Amino acid sequence: MNAPLGYLGDQPSQRLIPAEPIVRLEKISKTFPGRDGQPVTALREIDLAVPQGSILGVIGRSGAGKSTLIRLVNGLEKPSSGKVIVDGANIAALPESELRHARRSIGMIFQHFNLLSSRTAAENIALPLEVAGYDKAEIKARVEELLALVGLSDKRNRYPSELSGGQKQRVGIARALATKPKVLLSDEATSALDPETTRSILDLLARINAELGLTILLITHEMAVIRNIAREVAVIEGGRIVEQGDVFEVFTRPKHEVTRSFLGDEAGRVLPPYVQNRLQKEATPDSQTVIRIGFRGPHATDPVLARLAREEGIEANILSGAVDEIAGRPFGTLVVSVPAAASLKTLDFLKKHGLDTEVLGHVA
Amino acid sequence: MSPEMIRLIASSTGETLYMVGVSALIATLFGLPLGVYLATSGKGELFAAPWVNRILGVIVNATRSTPFIILVVAIIPFTRLIAGTSIGTNAAIVPLTIAATPFIARLIEGAIREVDQGLVEAARAFGATPLQIVLKVLIPEALPGIVLGLTLAIVSLLGFSAMVGAVGGGGLGDLGIRYGYQRFMPEMMLAVVVVLIVLVQAVQSIGDRLARRLNKRIRHG
Asked: Cα–Cα 20 to 30 A to A346, which of A110, A273, A357, B116?
């Protein structure tokens, strides 16, 4: 192994089709033998492409199949059918020895860090390099480089038990990057961390993605992770991908119930209890119609309610609202109520102005 | 206590240390790989071979459930084949080793199984071979447990070694039986017991201290 050290030395390989995604799952299904002899299906007919240099997040509840999905990419699990193409090679069909070699270009980080307690930070980072047969001098230089990259140069001789959760994950990231992978797999890497530490780890991953051009595939059950760093998202439920695309598109116009449920705890999606409790399905003569308005991108800051009053003479009550950011773009949610008689006119007006609307119900 | 007695105790202690030391060493040599293999050859594990695993398990259990004194007698022909004689300290090493090997293997299997499977997964994920996983992950991570297991095994061997006195194996046990019991010398019996207690204490505290030093999971002040 005399691979040059440092990312700058690595030139992207020449390809006939430059747009070829670095990771591509084709019609992947996975069944496990169940306890009572009935096979359990973890994944059904999954198609997923991770473009080179992107950050793709797979979000799903526990048991949705996301852990199995990410383990297919580095061959820790084999699919029952379908292909797993990583950097041009079908991981699912590689013999063990070639698979081990291929894994050096696929780094992985874990929820519980999985660091050796018997090795210091520096020794943990060195392990993949020792395994790959680098010589001592190369390992030493590379480890220093990686410690600096993750900001832990002063902790090189500390054992994992002497490090905080965030520092352990930084060591995990440095270890995953040691053999200069093209893809980084993140298996719930921030789920064991507090929000502030989560933020700093996500910032580090985003920086690595930007500076090193490393493709990141992450799985999570936390909306905050997707919102903060992913550019593309796939929503997985019951072993199927139910929705997939640009993060902003998917989360500002959620089509599937599961996608909505992940937005549920986000700001502006929860109705105040006094409205929620009185909400009914049918309109009555005196009732008010409760409408959720979604503002996306350029419209997010328009004074649309003022214009609704001025131009249409309809006065809306604001029940709740928030302006937030998804994938770096502004996104607002406003829940208003208008008299039932004016509801159709209101909906027309809002649609005309390019806003997303959803009638949540009626309150008397 | 006469100088003669002290001389006897010293030479018997030497014999005991020799028997226990050599048999512990050989038993570890066989027991370590056997224990690692038992811990890694189950269904779905690194060296998955469930049938071999099961058969080895049965053999290990059978050896361990045979009372030591019966084992000593039962394998006399084998002992004679290996040591050239069935009497004496060198001959005693054979049954001691055979009794200790499966014991050590089980202790090491236990220590290896204590290692977080997440570490094995991480090592597989960065391309380690099964052998590299054993040498660079499982054994180093299990080392404190292995040391404690070996300590326990040596303490047990000290006890077993007292029994081989019955077949002329020499050592402290032999001394205690022949002088203390058969010649009605209670002070000799007491001296033997005291020396054994001191030996066990010494082995245990050295083992504990070493294991604690190797264990990096706990913060040291």
From this structure: A273
